[in-house]
Design a protein that fits this description.
Length: about 475
């Protein structure tokens, strides 16, 4: 029997890319007769970024799928080829001559480079394999004497739950022990009581959505079953290097919850219905209680909010509260210098400074002298043109992440002054700059650490005369 299916498009076949390139070319209104046209973009298996001007729907009608059908079809062809090749994401740039002859360059991917966001330019360069930003390496501080809250009442908790969920099927001691073995942690007594009353399995509810809703109301959250319990340590809160390097872990001396990215003592057991996770906290802050209930926001990369002093309080609807005593004013460990924030490097400098971000600035470029020698400075990002002398960066010996514009990186590379303390780096690009020079700089930086390069693959094609 002859296979009638069309052949799988190859990511290295110019024809795979031709529909996307034609769309980008058609979006250039200028005449193509006199000079070549450069187009660029990024396509991943779950999204894409193409500089297309999409047509507005007629007045009174929302945009429909068919309004973008041509774009969807063109992109899907590439995405299918990416999936077939086992590639998650790839950027490209193409130079189209007036004659129609085209050189398409596929850029990467490289295991040492994170994808850019909404741009064909490379994202963060991972210079040390497996490296993590400092906040993701931070473990909880010990809190000697931490104890459960006085409100934790095992008998009251069990009685209340059984009254609310009289027909629930509870977990066996063997099932609870299996969960503890899988997590390599001893579950707190309140959590064990909860699962002895209900093991929260969907199949136990017989597809009864009202029963599931009653269980959520009874417990105070969407409860995970025992197989869904997980340790909300730092690895569970994935973040790109570029953003993770801008975070900092701070725990005030009177905090109920430690300001961590994650903790081996945060046992996630439920969801609030909006993507925020509830966890029992076995590593509380200096003023916190062992087994308190905290919430990890899906919109934040670090920290957690106190929900209740105990699981008993959660079930009984008694919310917890952070102490209201005023904190001693401390200079920020993450400082931003720009037209809308701090106005000088001097204002940002202090021994506890960890992250310095220099943004849009209308005045004279800054000297980095005020932050030279600061013991904890680990991240520097600087908007292009904001540094008086990029070579001053060589004196910042503790940097683990550095983000600069192309010209600043060029100065460091030419002088052999790229800090060897770096674990990751990034090139900040604004506007529609040609990706190829940026890729060249990225590869020079990667080469200093002998990391995998961003490979350029050239595919040639011909559209015929453009005019």
């Amino acid at each position: 029997m002859v296979d009638q299916r069309p052949p799988v498009a190859s990511i290295l076949d110019f024809a795979t890319w031709e529909p996307v390139l034609r769309l980008l070319l058609a979006d250039h209104p200028q005449s193509h007769a006199a000079r070549s046209v450069r187009v660029a973009g990024r396509i991943g298996r779950h999204g894409w970024s193409l500089a297309l001007k999409r047509r507005m729907p007629p007045p009174g009608r929302a945009a429909q799928v068919e309004d973008m059908q041509e774009e969807f079809d063109a992109v899907e062809r590439v995405q299918s080829a990416l999936a077939d090749a086992g590639v998650d994401d790839i950027s490209f740039t193409a130079e189209i001559q007036p004659t129609g002859k085209t050189a398409l360059r596929l850029l990467g991917p490289s295991p040492a480079v994170e994808p850019g966001i909404g741009t064909p330019h490379p994202g963060a360069l991972i210079l040390v394999d497996g490296s993590l930003p400092e906040p993701w390496r931070r473990l909880p501080d010990p809190v000697p004497g931490a104890a459960p809250a006085p409100s934790a009442d095992l008998e009251l908790l069990e009685r209340t739950l059984r009254e609310r969920l009289p027909h629930a099927i509870g977990a066996t001691e063997e099932e609870i022990a299996a969960a503890e073995a899988r997590l390599d942690v001893t579950l707190p007594d309140e959590l064990k009581v909860l699962y002895r009353v209900t093991r929260a399995r969907w199949e136990d509810l017989g597809d009864d959505y009202e029963a599931a809703e009653r269980e959520c109301t009874a417990v105070g959250c969407e409860l995970f079953d025992l197989d869904g319990l997980y340790v909300a340590d730092a690895s569970s809160r994935h973040c790109r290097w570029k953003f993770a390097a801008m975070e900092a872990v701070v725990t005030p001396p009177d905090a109920m919850v430690q300001g961590l990215v994650g903790s081996p003592g945060w046992i996630a057991f439920g969801d609030n219905g909006g993507g925020d996770r509830l966890a029992v906290d076995l590593t509380p802050g200096p003023r916190g209680h062992l087994g308190q209930v905290i919430m990890l926001s899906h919109e934040e990369y670090a920290g957690a909010a106190l929900v209740a002093d105990s699981l008993t309080d959660l079930v009984l609807g008694r919310p917890g509260a952070e102490p209201s005593s005023p904190h001693e004013q401390q200079p920020p460990v993450v400082a931003r210098v720009n037209v809308a924030s701090l106005k000088s490097i001097q204002a940002a400098a202090h021994p506890g400074l960890e992250v310095l971000s220099i943004g849009v600035w209308n005045g004279a470029p800054f000297s980095l002298a005020p932050v030279t020698g600061l013991p904890r400075l680990r991240t520097l990002t600087a908007y292009p043109g904001t540094l008086a002398d990029p070579l001053e960066i060589a004196k910042l010996t503790g940097l683990e992440f550095l983000e600069l514009g192309p010209e600043e990186w060029r100065a460091l590379l030419d002088a052999g002054a790229v800090p060897r303390s770096l674990s990751a780096a990034a090139i900040v690009v604004h506007g529609n700059q040609d990706p190829l020079p940026i890729v060249d700089i990225a590869n020079e930086i990667l080469a200093l650490w002998d990391r995998p390069q961003i490979i350029q693959t050239v595919l040639e094609g011909d559209f015929g005369p453009l005019a």
